[in-house]
Amino acid sequence: MKPCPSTTRQLIRLRDRVLARSRQIMLELSGGDPEGILSPRHHGLILRRQRARLLISRVRIVAFVFAILTPLWIAVDLAVFPPEIALPLGIARLLTSTAFFSLALMYADSDRVWHAWVALGLMFLIPTLFFLYSHSLLAGTDMEGVSAAMAAGYAYLPFVMLSGLAVFPLTALEAAVFALPVVAAQALTGLLGQDLMGWSNQLGATWLLVLIAVVAALAGMSQLHFMAELVRRSSHDALTGCLNRASGEELVRLHFSMARRTGEPVTVVFMDLDRFKSINDRFGHDIGDVVLYQAANAIREQLRDTDTLIRWGGEEFVLLLPGATRSDACRALARLQSNGLGLRPDGRPLTASFGLADTLTPGVSDVDSLVETADRHMYAAKRAGGDRIVAGLEPTP
């Protein structure tokens, strides 16, 4: 029997509305950047470092709290369970508390994302192992009254664990990865016949656990979006949309450190808009701001995805070109000069003086000398008349 055409059309319209609403919710949650809350690979270096610090800080706080609270329950176990149950549970609690204390001391000063992932993974692994052990111990013992009620309480540990996901700013992928082992542990106890709640409640409990994980993941994703927005606003120049100097300096240092470890070159380009002061003096600062904005857009349009434009101050900009040598940068800057930076208010082309240095430049031993060398070359370009590139000793028109 074929479905009625009108019913098919209604189902298609319903599907389209659901998909459209889902996309709208995702855009609202992500602030227009859904990739950023779905996977961490779309995060920039600054956001990755800030988030890693926050994740590790919260893991250490939670681990410290649980390290103190976990052994306190030993007194309750001794009061309600027989010794053959209470003593093994007490030993397990002490081992769990020790593991939490060790976790609280890990990665104190780290800002690496993989350290945060390891710490968060251990944060969920430690109670999961305790849950599996306590479940297997309690499920094999016949109990009644208060003992049975307390034993059943152990079955709800996964719910507490997954609700804790909401504490951390996580992407959807990360939340799924950390939640899956906990859900699997809950399902495993039922498959092995160790379900303290009874088979009649196992399916409902697992479904409720998944719902809690989804809600907690949404809360974490919302935190991540809020954090990303704060990082973006605090790290970018309000006028041009470029990275500001403070964040730019941090990013240059990060790339310089990576270049030293990997041997890959990094080039820093100092650029200064030629005769910009005359624009402000003749046409006013509002027109000067428009010229700066248009110049920044013109530069950004010609950059690679991996390149970064930084407003260093006034009409000075810095280009950070990872993986590029001075020769590569010179070719890119020549194209930038050819395509133009926009027009001055009087209709003449806007030009700039460029000075650059890379991590392979003689005399560059640290990040400060890298930046100073590029800055010195830029002033050499200006003294030579502007609208040129200086990559070494001689200016290049």
From TrEMBL:
Its cofactor is Mg(2+). One of its GO terms (molecular function) is diguanylate cyclase activity. SUPFAM superfamilies: Nucleotide cyclase. Keywords: Membrane, Transmembrane, Transmembrane helix. SMART domains: GGDEF (SM00267). Its EC number is 2.7.7.65. Residues 264-394 form the GGDEF domain. It catalyses: 2 GTP = 3',3'-c-di-GMP + 2 diphosphate. It holds the Pfam family GGDEF. The chain crosses the membrane at residues 59-79, 85-107, 114-133, 145-168, 175-193, 205-226. This is diguanylate cyclase. It comes from Alkalilimnicola ehrlichii (strain ATCC BAA-1101 / DSM 17681 / MLHE-1).
